[in-house]
């Protein structure tokens, strides 16, 4: 199929854009490492026994989820730059599928998530984090879907609003409550009942819950089934909607 040839071309184009910005690459590597170095030690009193390994077993899955969520968030800014620089205008005359244009950026963001994640897992394993290869493989698959959702959503909002200020207002107003209500940094079991109840309307919450179970090497769990039951349909819906947005914007 032609689309299978188009997607790698747009992916390569997006990837080259990323490689030309080493500062952002360095930032992507350093941010999760700084969380582990500066935040994880504060959580020792929340674990029993209070050891670094026990903290990392609970903390690293949340950091990986936060990394997946953040890796796709910048897609909208890239799209707005392309609108302002005339790239989208030139793409209007190409016969390429608008789905291919969308997926080129989505797959780039998935790769931007995967590489730092593997580094985080490696460094954490040196500090005592228990590595369960099968569980982590399923976890990374789940988080790749999360990155694809966020990337497609952010990129589509960029095409809709066409303004960095408006996009930033929408993204930042949603990013904070979604992350806080997911238990990324601290398990929500430590919070009050009303907070745990509100969290159930947040798709990110189910991803975080499944991530901690999968990181322990448990594949067939209720948390994992629920997470995939939420994320897979959401991925299909968002990609379908984003493709329609791209078709309208790049018509």
Q: Can you describe this structure in just a few lines?
A:
This protein is an all-alpha fold and 251 residues long.
Could you walk me through the main structural features you see in this protein, from its secondary elements to its overall organization?
This protein is an all-alpha fold. It has one domain. Helices cover about 80% and strands about 0% of the residues. Helix 7 (about 135-160) packs antiparallel against helix 8.
Percentage of residues in strands? under 5%
Beginning-to-end CA distance, first to last residue: 22 Å
Main sheet overview? none
| Count of extended strands | 0
- Extract low-pLDDT stretches: none
User: Total helix count?
Assistant: 11
Q: Please, what is the average pLDDT?
A: 86
**What structural class do the secondary elements suggest?**
mainly alpha
Radius of gyration: 19 Å
How many separate domains? 1
Shape: globular
Helix content range: over 70%
Pattern of helices and strands: HHHHHHHHHHH
Question: Key terms for this structure?
Answer:
0% strand; mainly alpha; globular; 251 residues
Compile the SSE list and pairings.
Elements: H1 2-19, H2 22-39, H3 52-71, H4 75-85, H5 87-91, H6 98-126, H7 133-161, H8 164-180, H9 193-199, H10 203-215, H11 222-249
Helix pairs in contact: 1-6, 2-3, 2-6, 3-6, 3-7, 3-10, 4-7, 6-7, 6-11, 7-8, 7-10, 7-11, 10-11
């Amino acid at each position: 199929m032609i689309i299978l040839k188009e997607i790698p071309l747009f992916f390569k184009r997006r990837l080259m854009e990323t490689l030309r910005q080493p500062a952002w690459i360095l930032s992507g590597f350093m941010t999760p490492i700084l969380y582990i170095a500066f935040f994880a030690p504060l959580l020792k009193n929340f674990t029993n026994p209070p050891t670094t390994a026990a903290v990392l077993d609970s903390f690293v899955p949340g950091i990986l989820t936060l990394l997946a969520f953040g890796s796709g968030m910048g897609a909208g800014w890239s799209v707005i730059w392309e609108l302002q620089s005339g790239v989208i205008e030139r793409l209007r005359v190409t016969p390429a599928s608008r789905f291919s244009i969308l997926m080129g950026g989505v797959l780039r963001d998935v790769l931007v998530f995967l590489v730092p994640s593997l580094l985080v897992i490696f460094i954490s394993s040196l500090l005592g984090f228990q590595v369960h290869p099968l569980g982590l493989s399923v976890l990374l698959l789940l988080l790749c879907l999360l990155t694809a959702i966020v990337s497609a959503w952010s990129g589509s909002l960029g095409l809709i609003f066409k303004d960095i200020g408006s996009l930033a207002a929408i993204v930042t107003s949603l990013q904070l409550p979604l992350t806080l209500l997911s238990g990324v940094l601290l398990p929500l079991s430590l919070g009050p009942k009303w907070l745990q109840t509100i969290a159930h309307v947040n798709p990110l919450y189910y991803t975080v819950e499944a991530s901690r179970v999968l990181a322990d090497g448990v594949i067939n769990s209720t948390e994992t089934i629920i997470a995939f039951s939420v994320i897979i349909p959401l991925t299909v819906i968002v990609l379908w909607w984003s493709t329609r947005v791209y078709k309208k914007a790049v018509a």
